[in-house]
């Protein structure tokens, strides 16, 4: 009788697949067994697989120690029938074979052949190829047919072959560019996906690359983590996850070890901490399966690409109209000439051959007119810029952010780690009312403090922390985690304490992780030496923790009531540290009874009736170059605003040192800003330069108000809760070192070095990208207009219906102005000059006044010079005329070759003009910094020499003499003085009707000069109102005004009386506020005075 397996745990059931049995022979569980655990549509609970303990045994992992680096020698107790293989086997091979690696299969690169096919997938090029094949067929028939004159050379086929060769050159050049571009973006994506996670291995916390995570690993979870694996919660301290990107569920989901124990990859840890058992990685995880299904998606075009696509489409339509007009005109002219000549109608073969030549000319006009290089210029500029920006520690995740950053008007920056070095050190402190400085590193304090008190302080730092010590890349021990916590751990290490020993001896029973809203972190521990069985430790922002304290510990170790006098002393200590630009952290504790502990929930930390242990001052010096970068931002018309969680005094001190807070600028706290009405916030944000004690919500509000004023806002953020502000910003910058994975995912650019100066570099590259595209646009439109008009007029005016520029010559010009020009002009590195102008406004046209002036002026000049050479070139170049006063076919070919040479050199020299899109006269400035530009010019020059000297019948050219080369180059170089003249041409000379002038630059909301002037004026008003209030207080009934010495004495007496000072100050401030309100301006907050 067969046994019933319905009630047996799934782990004991046999599996039919032999291959799967072989792969998982080291484990009694398979990928298919684990998959239902994290299936959002139909999840199974761990008890369905025998429970957490049974799953850990099956995966051969001790949840308290994690995996062993050597599974053979140090594996967990094996379950029956499992083996891990040979001792010399590389680590985790059996595990990787059974459950896969945490990587997705590499996307196959598009083959070069497919890129060639894609480049050739253009209707115009296909049409031109068909016409070339027809021309080739007709030419071969004429050369080798019965009517061919034996004395004539058989070279008719050369033009058709040359056109096909030129088409092939265009196609292969585009394909090579696409191939290079794809390689660059692949490197960027590989860099983007490279990150580290924290886990438990060999019984200790470690950081490893996310790609090395294995099924069975014990992964540590912290706020801000972006989970790359599926798993089961092993330990949860109020863990909350956002699974909206995976499931569409917008609400934050609580996680525990019971019913809500599963977590899926792609979700974000919003709050809490804990650990999880990894059950699925790579393509077996939820995120991996989703990504594999989305790989066919194509990237969106950037806004600039969309603009240029529309412009290219409009130009192509005009080019098509010109081609159709040319085709119609030449066909009509062809038959009219035959009719007027009185000769017999040519045979059908001749007419067909002539018609094919006319069609080829018309199609070539379309090829030249269609600016297919415009979108390619954007792509090349972005590809080059993003690659170079990575060298400047800017990892671009969203391509459009690069061009958007170029027009940024405001940067809202964090302080810690961005403006400062994020190398935090405890340099001063007052613990149990005993002060110390960085001179002795706290050694004097540890000697003077009561042992019982110092032990509590050391325990509070060691236990109420998630930072730990690990080896860095060089093998040196370094703290990993929050820099503030690392500084505190470094302090207790300097006084001889071991945080790891304390963590091993004392059990932490509940953790309330740091919250940017609460500005505190708390933990509850078992306290065998305390008065009660539990003790809560709280640390955080000094004034916030102090607000929750009712007692303090003095130098004798006595616990005393925190009365007004003692509280004022602590406020004074905090103020002194803050004035030195130190971050102040307060430490506190309280003993908790068993009955009270039972009332604690996982939501809110019970930070009440605390005992203040003291305050420490943590120094985080400004990064080198920050002051200069802030100054450069100001020159570029970009306002820097500092939004920080530090207290107001610390924030003001650092902002002044950095040059952010100017006289007249507004500095206030987040709660003060939130208390304002929307209209007041909009008015205040114009002058806001420092927002202290701010929450992520405050940052989001500031961004929204600035955007409502038309600002283009860049925001920096590193925390999970910064996600909304980073998403809302026009450009979001996350921190590559200290930033959470959630922040990185929400950002457009990752600062790999967390350095503020890197933001300035991204601004420069953004402006360089926009400038590069405009330079190319200026160059290409000039060539377009000139080539189309010249071809049309010369073909219509000629006797043989042939343009002065042959089809193959035009294809070479097309190659110059599309691919090669895009390479030359789109790879221009940014110069410091880009910071000397204000941001471009959103309303500014793509082609500005200066560009139109250069485009139309150069086009008119080039058309005129070429038509003049066509008309008077024989006389100018001393070419002999026949008896009819015309050039014979041989000399006509010489003239057309010289005109072709002049045309190309006009473009070569005009490309130098197009390096500048402003009125700067020196077009050679910084030219040596762009090696690509120089190389391209040499390539074009070499190609032109080869075509003219050896192109022959294929390119319809003849070799020129040295004198003719010099003449044509000199005429071509006239583009430079013409460009100089056009730059010197005043704007008022050009009528508004012809070229309307639209303001391009966006002015700051409030200029620095105006801010300083108003700040100085307000200060004078404030001082006057203050003295007036003092005077009224001294003379309430309108007595005579006291003398100056009397005023000084009165002022000193008033300042000595705190209450009277506050009244006078309040009266002065009220009058000032009323005065500002009457002027419809926002009233200054307390922090602005």
From TrEMBL:
Region Disordered: start-end pairs: 1-48, 1069-1089
Record field: catalytic activity: Ca(2+)(in) + ATP + H2O = Ca(2+)(out) + ADP + phosphate + H(+)
Domain P-type ATPase A: 195-293
The keyword Calcium appears for this protein: yes
EC number in record: 7.2.2.10
Stated role: Catalyzes the hydrolysis of ATP coupled with the transport of calcium.
SUPFAM superfamilies: Calcium ATPase, transduction domain A (SSF81653), Calcium ATPase, transmembrane domain M (SSF81665), HAD-like (SSF56784), Metal cation-transporting ATPase, ATP-binding domain N (SSF81660)
Bias-annotated ranges (Low complexity): 1077-1089
Family matches, as Pfam families: Cation_ATPase (PF13246), Cation_ATPase_C (PF00689), E1-E2_ATPase (PF00122)
Major location category of this protein: membrane
Membrane-traversing stretches: 124-141, 161-179, 318-338, 358-385, 855-873, 893-912, 932-952, 964-985
Polar residues composition-biased segments: 19-28
Claim: Transcription is one of the keywords in the record: no
MF annotations from Gene Ontology: ATP binding; ATP hydrolysis activity; metal ion binding; P-type calcium transporter activity
Annotated membrane topology: Multi-pass membrane protein
Biological processes, Gene Ontology terms: intracellular calcium ion homeostasis
Cellular compartments per GO CC: endomembrane system; plasma membrane
Source organism: Linnemannia exigua
Protein name per Swiss-Prot or TrEMBL: Calcium-transporting ATPase
PANTHER family the record matches: CALCIUM-TRANSPORTING ATPASE, CATION TRANSPORTING ATPASE
Domain Cation-transporting P-type ATPase C-terminal per the UniProt entry, residue ranges: 803-984
Family note: Belongs to the cation transport ATPase (P-type) (TC 3.A.3) family.
InterPro entries (UniProt xref): ATPase_P-typ_cation-transptr_C (IPR006068), ATPase_P-typ_cyto_dom_N (IPR023299), ATPase_P-typ_P_site (IPR018303), ATPase_P-typ_TM_dom_sf (IPR023298), ATPase_P-typ_transduc_dom_A_sf (IPR008250), ATPase_P-type_domA (IPR059000), HAD-like_sf (IPR036412), HAD_sf (IPR023214)
């Amino acid at each position: 009788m067969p046994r019933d397996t319905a009630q047996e745990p799934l782990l004991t059931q046999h599996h039919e697949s032999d291959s799967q049995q072989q792969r998982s022979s080291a484990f009694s569980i398979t990928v298919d067994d684990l998959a239902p655990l994290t299936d959002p549509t139909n999840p199974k609970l761990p008890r369905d697989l025998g429970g957490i303990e049974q799953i850990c045994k099956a995966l051969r992992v001790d949840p308290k120690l994690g995996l062993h680096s050597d599974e053979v020698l140090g594996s967990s107790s094996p379950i029956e029938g499992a083996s891990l293989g040979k001792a010399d086997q590389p680590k985790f091979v059996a595990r990787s074979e059974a459950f896969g690696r945490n990587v997705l299969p590499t996307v196959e690169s598009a083959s070069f052949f497919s890129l060639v096919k894609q480049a050739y997938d253009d209707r115009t090029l296909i049409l031109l190829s068909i016409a070339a094949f027809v021309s080739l067929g007709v030419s071969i028939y004429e050369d080798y047919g019965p009517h061919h004159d034996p004395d004539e050379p058989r070279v008719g086929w050369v033009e058709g072959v040359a056109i096909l060769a030129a088409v092939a050159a265009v196609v292969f050049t585009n394909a090579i560019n696409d191939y290079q571009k794809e390689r660059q973006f692949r490197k960027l994506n590989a860099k983007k996906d490279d990150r580290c996670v924290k886990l438990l291995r060999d019984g200790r916390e470690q950081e490893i690359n996310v790609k090395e995570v294995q099924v069975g690993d014990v992964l540590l979870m912290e706020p801000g983590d972006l989970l790359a694996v599926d798993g089961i919660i092993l330990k949860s301290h109020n863990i909350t996850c956002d699974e909206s990107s995976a499931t569409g569920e917008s609400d934050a989901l609580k996680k525990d070890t019971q019913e809500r124990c599963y977590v899926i990859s792609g979700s974000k840890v919003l709050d809490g901490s804990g650990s999880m058992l990894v059950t699925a990685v790579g393509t077996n995880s939820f995120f991996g399966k989703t990504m594999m299904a989305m790989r066919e998606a194509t990237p969106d075009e950037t806004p600039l690409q969309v603009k240029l696509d529309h412009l290219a489409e409009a130009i192509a339509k005009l080019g098509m109209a010109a081609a159709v007009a040319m085709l119609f005109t030449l066909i009509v002219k062809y038959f009219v000439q035959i009719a007027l000549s009185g000769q017999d109608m040519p045979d059908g073969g001749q007419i067909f051959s002539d018609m094919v030549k006319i069609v080829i000319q018309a199609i070539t006009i379309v090829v030249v007119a269609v600016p297919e290089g415009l979108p390619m210029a954007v792509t090349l500029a972005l590809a080059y810029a993003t690659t170079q920006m990575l060298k400047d520690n800017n990892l671009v995740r969203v391509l459009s952010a690069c061009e958007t950053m170029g027009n940024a008007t405001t940067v809202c920056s964090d302080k810690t780690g961005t403006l400062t070095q994020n190398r935090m050190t405890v340099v001063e402190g007052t613990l149990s009312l005993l002060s110390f400085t960085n001179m002795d590193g706290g050694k004097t304090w540890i000697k003077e403090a009561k042992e019982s008190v110092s032990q509590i302080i050391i325990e509070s730092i060691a236990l109420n922390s998630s930072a730990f010590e690990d080896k860095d890349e060089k093998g040196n021990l370094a703290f990993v985690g929050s820099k503030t916590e690392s500084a505190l751990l470094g302090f207790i290490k300097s006084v001889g304490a071991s945080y790891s020993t304390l963590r091993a001896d004392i059990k932490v029973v509940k953790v309330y992780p740091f919250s940017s809203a609460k500005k505190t972190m708390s933990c509850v521990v078992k306290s065998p030496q305390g008065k009660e069985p539990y003790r809560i430790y709280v640390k955080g922002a000094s004034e916030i923790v102090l607000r929750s304290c009712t007692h303090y510990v003095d130098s004798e170790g006595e616990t005393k009531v925190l009365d007004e006098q003692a509280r004022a002393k602590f406020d004074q200590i905090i103020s002194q540290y803050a004035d030195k630009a130190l971050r102040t952290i307060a430490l506190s504790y309280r003993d908790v009874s068993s009955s009270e502990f039972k009332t604690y929930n996982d939501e809110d930390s019970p930070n009440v009736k605390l005992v203040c242990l003291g305050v420490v001052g943590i120094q985080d010096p400004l990064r080198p170059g920050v002051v200069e970068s802030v100054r450069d931002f100001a020159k570029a018309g970009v306002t820097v605003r500092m939004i920080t969680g530090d207290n107001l005094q610390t924030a003001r001190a650092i902002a002044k040192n950095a040059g952010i807070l100017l006289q007249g600028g507004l500095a206030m706290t987040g709660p003060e800003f939130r208390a304002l009405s929307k209209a007041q916030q909009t008015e205040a944000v114009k002058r806001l330069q420092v927002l202290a004690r701010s929450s992520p919500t405050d940052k989001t509000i500031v961004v929204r108000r600035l955007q409502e004023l038309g600002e283009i806002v860049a925001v920096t953020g590193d925390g999970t809760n910064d996600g909304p502000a980073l998403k809302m910003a026009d450009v979001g910058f996350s921190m590559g070192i200290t930033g959470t994975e959630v922040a990185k995912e929400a950002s457009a650019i990752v600062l790999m070095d967390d350095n503020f100066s890197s933001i300035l570099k991204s601004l420069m590259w953004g402006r360089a990208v926009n400038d590069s595209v405009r330079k190319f646009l200026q160059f290409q439109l000039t060539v377009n207009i000139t080539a189309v008009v010249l071809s049309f007029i010369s073909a219509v005016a000629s006797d043989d219906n042939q343009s002065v520029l042959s089809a193959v010559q035009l294809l070479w010009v097309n190659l110059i102005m599309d691919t090669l020009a895009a390479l030359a002009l789109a790879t221009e590195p940014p110069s410091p000059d880009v910071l000397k102008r204000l941001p471009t406004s959103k309303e500014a046209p793509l082609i500005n006044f200066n560009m139109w002036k250069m485009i139309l002026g150069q086009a008119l000049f080039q058309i005129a010079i070429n038509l003049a050479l066509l008309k008077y070139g024989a006389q100018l170049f001393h070419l002999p005329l026949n008896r009819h006063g015309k050039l014979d076919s041989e000399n006509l070919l010489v003239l057309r070759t010289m005109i072709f040479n002049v045309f190309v050199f006009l473009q070569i020299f005009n490309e130098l003009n197009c390096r500048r899109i402003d009125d700067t006269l020196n077009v050679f400035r910084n030219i040596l910094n762009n090696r690509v530009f120089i190389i391209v010019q040499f390539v074009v020059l070499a190609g032109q020499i080869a075509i003219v000297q050896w192109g022959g019948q294929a390119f319809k050219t003849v070799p020129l003499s040295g004198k003719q080369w010099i003449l044509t180059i000199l005429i071509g170089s006239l583009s430079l003085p013409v460009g100089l003249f056009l730059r010197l041409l005043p704007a008022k000379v050009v009528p508004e009707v012809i070229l309307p002038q639209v303001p391009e630059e966006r002015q700051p909301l409030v200029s620095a000069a105006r801010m300083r002037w108003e700040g100085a004026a307000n200060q004078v008003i404030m001082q006057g109102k203050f003295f007036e209030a003092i005077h009224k207080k001294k003379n309430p009934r309108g007595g005579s005004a006291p003398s100056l010495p009397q005023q000084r004495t009165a002022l000193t007496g008033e300042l000595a009386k705190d209450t009277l000072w506050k009244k006078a100050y309040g009266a002065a401030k009220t009058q000032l506020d009323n005065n500002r309100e009457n002027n419809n301006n926002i009233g200054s907050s307390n922090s602005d005075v």
